[in-house]
């Protein structure tokens, strides 16, 4: 080649270093793209869960229950089957004009590590009994997800601020018991 021996060695080392850097950058980009895809899949599943979490009325509750069960797994799914699935039909039989709706506004991803993910979902929840309506805008729900069979499924759910020791009941879903809404009171001037 006509290159001095030292120049040839430097050229070979330089080519090897450049090749190593190129391979490293390609692998980093590939990993980053995979992580981005996983995060997008988690956001999509969490958003769907938020939209279904409390979206029931007398006409659609059976279909909605079927859909949301497809998004859950583990203990959360079992608690849902033993509480909500058992009580919701009676609740709508008693109050056929009742309606619950939830709409995902934002999903905040905490972590995604290939098999497990955590998110906080901000949802607007509206509950109507046919006569009056109450809403809980920007309600925060913490979700833990697990990847099963290539799909993300919700394995834990807690209202933000709940330490997880609650019943696991979906927010706003009737549990078969009549509950009363607190009445607003005006306090007037404080008495000293």
Key attributes of the depicted protein:
192 residues; single chain; alpha+beta; five-stranded antiparallel beta sheet; disordered C terminus; 4 helices; 40% helix
Task: Explain what this protein looks like in three dimensions.
The protein has 192 residues and is an alpha+beta fold. Helix content is 40%, strand content 28%. It is built from 4 helices and 5 strands. A 5-stranded antiparallel β-sheet has the order 1-2-3-4-5. A hairpin with a 2-residue loop joins strand 4 (133-148) and strand 5. Helix 3 (74-82) runs parallel beside helix 4 (84-94).
Helix content: 40-55%
Largest sheet: 5 strands, antiparallel
Shape: elongated
Distance between the termini: 101 Å
Counted by DSSP, the helix tally is 4
Oligomer description: single chain
Estimate the strand proportion. Answer: 25-35%
Q: Could you say which structural class the secondary elements and strand pairing correspond to?
A: alpha+beta
How many strands? 5
Rg for CA atoms: 26 Å
Order of helices and strands: HEHHHEEEE
The low-confidence runs, each spanning 5 or more residues with pLDDT under 50, are 167-192
> What's the overall average pLDDT, rounded?
82
- Largest beta sheet: strand ordering: 1-2-3-4-5
């Amino acid at each position: 080649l006509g290159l001095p021996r030292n120049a040839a060695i430097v050229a070979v080392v330089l080519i090897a270093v450049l090749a190593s850097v190129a391979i490293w950058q390609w692998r980093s980009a590939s990993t980053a793209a995979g992580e981005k895809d996983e995060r997008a899949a988690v956001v999509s599943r969490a958003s769907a869960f938020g939209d279904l979490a409390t979206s029931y009325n007398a006409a659609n509750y059976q279909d909605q229950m079927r859909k949301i069960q497809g998004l859950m797994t583990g203990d959360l799914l079992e608690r849902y089957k033993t509480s909500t699935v058992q009580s919701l039909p009676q609740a709508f039989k008693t109050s056929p004009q009742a309606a619950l709706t939830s709409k995902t506004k934002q999903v905040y991803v905490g972590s995604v590590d290939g098999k497990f993910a955590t998110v906080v979902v901000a949802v607007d929840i509206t509950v109507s009994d046919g006569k009056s309506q109450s809403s809980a805008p920007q309600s925060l729900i913490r979700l833990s997800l697990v990847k099963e069979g290539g799909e993300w499924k919700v394995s834990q759910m807690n209202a933000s601020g709940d330490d997880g020791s609650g019943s696991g009941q979906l927010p706003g879903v009737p549990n078969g018991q009549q509950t009363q809404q607190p009445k607003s009171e005006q306090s007037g001037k404080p008495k000293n």
